[in-house]
Design goal:
Elements: E1 16-18, E2 24-26, H1 30-48, H2 54-74, H3 94-108, E3 118-119, H4 124-147, H5 154-174, E4 182-183
Antiparallel strand pairs: 1-2, 3-4
Helix pairs in contact: 1-2, 1-4, 3-5, 4-5
Amino acid sequence: MVVLNKIYTKTGDAGETALGNGSRVAKHSLRVTAYGTSDELNAVIGVARLNAEGIMDERLMRIQNDLFDLGADLCRPDMAKDAESEYPPLRMVDAQVARLEAEIDEMNAGLAPLRSFVLPGGSALAAHLHVCRTVARRAERLAVELSGVEEVNPAAVKYLNRLSDWFFVASRAANQNGAGDVLWVPGANR
């Protein structure tokens, strides 16, 4: 259970923050940037949800919860020590990736194949989901970069990879199952 009685602590005033294992790092460290970007993604999903309803809103809320799991995972280095810990840290699992894949397949089943790239836009929800897609891609790039220098849970990276695909397919579903997609016309303005 998380209890937040006091919001400011002043412990970060010198430009450092604590990771989930208690160690302190610079606020601009790659690990902090990676989980900070997943938090940014969570915020833009909150904006997208202003235009979502029904099952789309439910799925977006589930993803927001997953992103808190992802942040908890990324802020906790030293995966080798997980088994020794009295309180094992929260880690992303392949079942979360599999759920995204199942939802992608379900949404994609009703979409016509694309004959061109899709420009971000169409409905308000679709446009917001495209913003989510691009922030998810940035979060993925940062997690992959982090995994090149420190240990990162592979399920966390896979989740972010699938998540950007999820947002792309969801944006098409939000555009009247693709009927409202705005397609790229190569060289149209030459």
